[in-house]
């Protein structure tokens, strides 16, 4: 794509439009002489828009120009367009400067003047056109990053004790099977496995084989991605991925009560290495019982009591106290993992209707809206999730906080959130990876490279 040639490089270029002046050399946006805060990438996009002359700029050209030699998703571009509009003071209904062209992308609508700081020559610049296409099923950065984080969490290990000797080492990985539900109540299907994953992912000591890795292995086994993870299938996946143990959960009814069980099976020889059962007096107490099972299991496999106390938010608080809300949330997450973002939104909406304080449902609905191209609603959900951040686990608090500050453009605070996570979960390379990406977005390349090296260090989970 041909770009307009800049004027004499010795001459500082100032672009003026409306009440704004943009200083390309100093990376400054001024409104009537006052500096306007703007994210670095949003500033670069604005500079491309006002420099371009009456040509449609494709999505690929813009991504390659702003993020050269770096893979990013269209959603990142949409988010920066949103931040740019916010910096320019545009309302959702009135896009004076950046106009959305339905079915095509965006158009910079205001006249621009190029002012030479040396000669004060005024040259009328043209309107610019930018074409941006956001496809619903395109892989999206934040779920890709979420997948990276889950892979990181799955890479550590458990110690299961039999006669006080460890059955697993810190290099082992553990596989979660679906719960065997003999109650006849479908509300437990998928829901209990998701709840157990939330509880165990709080542990700095444990690691789980990620759903992403599971789906990849199922494809190698010529099985569909939604194959039910029975104990047999789970042990086969565990063995294929080099895991050490598969966790088989179960729930059954005992009169008016329920019995939840968890069994750890050596995926190489089929031997039981750990087992526990907990009773729940009522259906509504199942999530509380699941919290107890997870906490007890973490203690038995060798995790210190200190880290359990520090990172053991009850499931009813980390997610929701409603099984129905958690069921819809789990279904929405499953659909979103397949790239169907719009289809997942109604499921998260049902979760929120049941439990208006379900922070993670707002967070994931916000991501779904973002990937579907509705940045305004995504921002609303990011803000709502952040207002409930004290109700979630440490890992979920990091995701929500970082996502919120990414939207507000407060990238230093986003980095602070990831740094806290890196301290709490020192064997998890995901926070270092995200810090690296954010620093690169800010133009702090050397620091970003150093964080990238930290993410790839031998001590990090992989």
Describe the protein's architecture and organization:
- Mean pLDDT is 81; it is low at 1-10, 118-138, 144-166 and 458-462.
- The longest helix is centred in the middle third of the chain and has 15 residues, at 286-300.
- The chain is built from 18 helices and 17 strands.
- Strand 8 (112-116) and strand 9 form a beta hairpin.
- It is of the alpha+beta class and 462 residues long.
- A 6-stranded antiparallel sheet has the order 4-3-2-1-8-9, with helices on one face. Strands 13, 14, 15, 16 and 17 form a 5-stranded mixed sheet that branches. A 4-stranded mixed sheet has the order 5-10-7-6.
- The chain has helices at residues 40-51, 59-66, 74-87, 141-154, 191-200, 211-220, 231-240, 286-300, 305-310, 315-318, 323-337, 341-354, 359-371, 375-387, 394-408, 411-424, 430-441, 445-455; strands at residues 13-17, 20-23, 28-31, 34-35, 56-57, 98-101, 105-108, 112-116, 122-125, 128-131, 161-162, 165-166, 174-176, 180-181, 245-254, 257-266, 272-280.
- The chain is elongated.
- Among the domains are: 13-131, Winged helix-like DNA-binding domain superfamily/Winged helix DNA-binding domain (Arc Repressor Mutant, subunit A), CATH 1.10.10.10; 151-316, ABC-type transport auxiliary lipoprotein component (Rossmann fold, 3-Layer(aba) Sandwich).
